[in-house]
Specification:
Strand order of the largest sheet of chain B: 5-6-7-3-8-9
Distance between the termini of chain A: 50 Å
Strand content of chain A: under 5%
CATH architecture of the largest domain in chain B: 3-Layer(aba) Sandwich
Shape of chain A: flat
Helix content of chain B: 25-40%
Largest sheet of chain B: 6 strands, mixed
Radius of gyration of chain A: 29 Å
Order of helices and strands of chain A: HHHHHHHHHHHH
Largest interface: A-B, 21 and 22 residues
CATH topology of one domain in chain A: MetI-like fold
CATH class of the largest domain in chain B: Alpha Beta
CATH topology of the largest domain in chain B: Rossmann fold
Number of strands of chain A: 0
Number of helices of chain A: 12
Order of helices and strands of chain B: EEEHEEHHHEHEHEEHH
CATH architecture of one domain in chain A: Orthogonal Bundle
Number of strands of chain B: 9
CATH superfamily of one domain in chain A: MetI-like
Bound molecules: adenosine-5'-triphosphate, magnesium ion
CATH superfamily of the largest domain in chain B: P-loop containing nucleotide triphosphate hydrolases
Structural class of chain A: mainly alpha
Radius of gyration of chain B: 18 Å
Oligomer: heterodimer
Distance between the termini of chain B: 36 Å
Amino acid sequence: MTYVSSSPSRGLDVLDRERLASFAPPASHASPTSHSSPTSLRPPAIVETSTRRRRRLGPGPAIPFGLQIGPIALLLTWTAGSTFGLLDPRILPAPLTIVATFGDLIADGRLQSNFLTSSVRALLGLGFGIVIGLLLAVISGLSRIGEAFIDGPIQIKRAVPTLAMIPLLMLWLGIGETMKVTIITLGVVVPIYMHTHNALRAIDERYVELAETLSMSQRDFLVQVILPGAVPGFLLGLRFAVTLCWVSLVVVEQINATSGLGYMIELARTYGQTQIIIVGLVVYAFLGLASDGVVRLLERRLLSWRRTLAH
Amino acid sequence: MAPHARPLNAVEVRRLTRRFGEVTILDNLDLEIGQGEFVALLGKSGSGKSTFLRALAGLDYEVEGTGALRTPEKLSVVFQDARLLPWRNVIQNVTLGLGGAGREAGRKALEEVGLAGRETAWPIQLSGGEQQRVALARSLVREPALLLADEPFGALDALTRLKMHDLLRELCTRHRPAVLLVTHDVDEAISLADRILVLDQGRLVEDLTIDIKGRRNHGDPRFGAIRTQLLSRLGVDADDRSAA
Ligand SMILES: Nc1ncnc2c1ncn2[C@@H]1O[C@H](COP(=O)(O)OP(=O)(O)OP(=O)(O)O)[C@@H](O)[C@H]1O
Ligand SMILES: [Mg+2]
C-alpha cells in the first residue's frame, strides 16, 4: 500500500462530514466559519430524520388544495372586477349572472338536451376511434403484412388534418350525425394508432428472449408480454385522443348543427348573449377536466406496477 | 475425468464453432456435462463465455458457426439481470406461461427461495437480490434438467452474493439439474462447482474436477492451490495479487 502515509482517519472524517452535511438543513452551509480554517471544524449537528423523507430533487411535497388555488384566485379577480364596474357585462358578465343563466337554461331543459347530444357525439366518436385505432395498431404491430397495408395509409391520413376533410365528408355523408361522429372518429384513430403501434414495436428485446427461453406459447407471449408492455403507449395515445375528440366536437358543432353545446353557443352569439356563451364554455371545461380525470384514473389502475415521481 | 462412464450426458457439444465476422470466438469446442453435474465456466472478459452459453440456450440467432449440440428439452436460463416482467407480479412472473396449473408449484418455489408471502408484490418493490431469487424460482418451477446461468450474481453486492451461493447450492442438491454457471469470480466457481472450465482463445484450456467434499472453506489449502492454478490460467499472477 503506497498511500499509507496519508492519515486514513482524516480521510474518513471528510467522508463522514460530507455525508452528514447532506442531511443537515441548508442553513448550516451558510455559516461562513465552517469552511474557513480546518482547525475550527466542528462536525455538523446530528439532525432528526423523519421515517419517510421526501426526495431532495423533484417538485417537493404537495400543497393542500394546490390545484384549486389558481382557479379560485381567478374567480375572485373576476368577481371583484364585475362588482366594481371594471368589466363591461357585455364583454364579461358577473359570475352571479352566469350562475343565474345556468339555472335558467337547466329550468327550460335546453342545457340538458344540448349536453346530452354533444356527449353522445363525443363518446360515439371516441369509442369508435379507440376500437378502430387499437385494432389497426395491433394488426400492424404484430404482423409485417398488416404493417405493409395499414401503416402507410395512416401516415398519409396523419398528414391531412381531419378538420380539412370536413367539406369532403359533408358531400359524402351529408350534414347529419354520421358526418359529425365520423369526423371525431377520424381524429381519434390517429393518436391511438400511432402510440399503440409504437409501443408494440418498441418492446424490449430482452423480454422476447425471456419468452423464448421459457418456451411460451404465441398466445401467452401476446397476452403476458406484448400487450401489457404496450399499455403505457396506448394510454399516452388516449390522452391525445381525448383532447382531439373535444376539439373536433367543438368544430363540427359550429358548422351546420341544429343541436348540441356548440349550436347553443353559436345561437347565443347571434343574439349577443355573452352569458350563455360562457355557460357553454364552462360546460366544455367541465367535460375536458372530467375526461382527463377518467384517463388519469385508468392510468393509475393499469399502471400500478410503475413507480413515478408524481403522487 | 471420464465422463464416458456416465449413462447419458445432459449436454453434448461437438466441434462447436462460432464466429463474429472474421473473428472466431469459439473454435471447435467439445464438451460433455453429466446429469446433475455443476460446471462453472471461467474466462477473461470477451473470451466468449456468453456466446457459448447462448449457443447452448439456442439464443444465438444469426450468429455464424458450425458444430453439433444436444441439450435437454427442459432447459432454463438465469440472466444477469433478473429479467422479470415489471407489469406482472411476483407469482405471475414465476409461473409465466404455465397458466393457473403452475400456481401451487410457483408458491412452493417462492417458499424455497425464501420469498413466501411476497407473491403479489410488483418486481419494482423488490431488492436486486430478491428479484434474482424470483428469477431462480421461475427457473426451478420448470424442473429443468439443465440450468444455464450467465453471471447471475454479477450485479449483487458481496454479502448478498454469498447468501445466493448458499441458496443455489441448496437448491441444486435438492433438484439435481445439470448446471453451467458462467462467472468471472474464481472463488464463486470453486465454492460452487464440481468441475471448472476455463475458456481462452476459443478453446477450453482447463477442465478441473473439484473434489473437496462438504462445505468449501476459503481457508482450506486445497482451495488456495486451485485458486492459484485457475488465476494463472486466466493470466493473473496470484502471488502478485496477494502481495499488493
Ligand atoms: N453480436 C455481436 N456482434 C459482434 N461481436 C460480438 C457480438 N457479441 C459478442 N461479440 C464479441 O464476441 C466476443 C465474446 O463475447 P462474449 O459476450 O461471449 O464474451 P464474455 O466472455 O461473455 O465476456 P464478459 O465476461 O465480459 O461477459 C467479444 O469480443 C465480443 O466483442
Ligand atoms: Mg458475458
